[in-house]
Design goal:
heterodimer; A: 3-stranded antiparallel beta sheet; 54% helix; globular; B: alpha+beta; 6-stranded antiparallel beta sheet
Chain lengths: 188, 127
Amino acid sequence: MVEALGSVSVTKLQKVLYLADLEHHALTGTTMTGARWVRYTHGPMAKALLPSTQVMDGHEIEVSNEPVGPYDARVYRPGPAPRFRPNLAPEEKATLDRILALVGQLTTKDVIALAYNTAPMRLLQRIEGETGQIQLDVEIPFELDEATIADVASPEPAADVAAVVAFKRRERERVRDLQEAAVARASR
Amino acid sequence: MIAPGAVFEIPAPLADPPQQARNPNAPARARRWVLVVSNKADCRDRFLETNVVVLLSAQTEYAYRHDVLIRRPDGGIERDSIAQTDLVFVVEKVELTADRLRGTVMADTLRQVRAKLAETLGISPGA
């Protein structure tokens, strides 16, 4: 993954892995890493990742501390002397390639935003909103029932109801236009 | 390729004619983006001419309880958008062409949209 991304901060790498694990879980029922994901300061984090990167440092990856924005961050780059190559199943590689294509060029901030918008993180944010307490170190639940997902999927309404009604009215007109246009084309 | 979670851009001219027929001074319509929510079999069935889609909007400030937030660039969208599960309709497959395909949302995003759709339709547990 570090090879594909070139250089990547630990924060971004964690979010990319989280999105890949969640994608794989949604498609197959299992994660790729088998890691336990917890909610940390900047979103999802797998603590198991940290010791394994220490073992790979100087071989598969190179780890350095560099300024990223206003902070110093741990940055990973492809290492000089890899001892092994990951042996991914075709469906794992497909998932990883898909997520890398989606987020590879994004800033860390944008990847964090994507991670926060997933159903498990939306649930934790809902709990945080209700309890007023950040759920630090709480396990991120990948197994969610449909009713829970539906319950947390909508953002908090920001506009007043009258504005929403007017907006929805305009949107319904657009749907009608699209449908009538399609019917007109089909009956030509 | 049409698949569950695929996002298509419907160009403006495809939404214009009937409305302009009723009102010659009607404003031009902008392009619209839709998200395919049909199941895999229905997407692939050559004898089924339509797929079910939900309408997307980048006006996220109007999000209400039927809407699911999609962050850019998930599904190839250019701006953060809402998938409106109270605005569901069918689109003919011939209009969902490769050149209008913009991407496919993450599995988790599609799951959120379908869960919200099930709630909207009253077919989710407890609805």
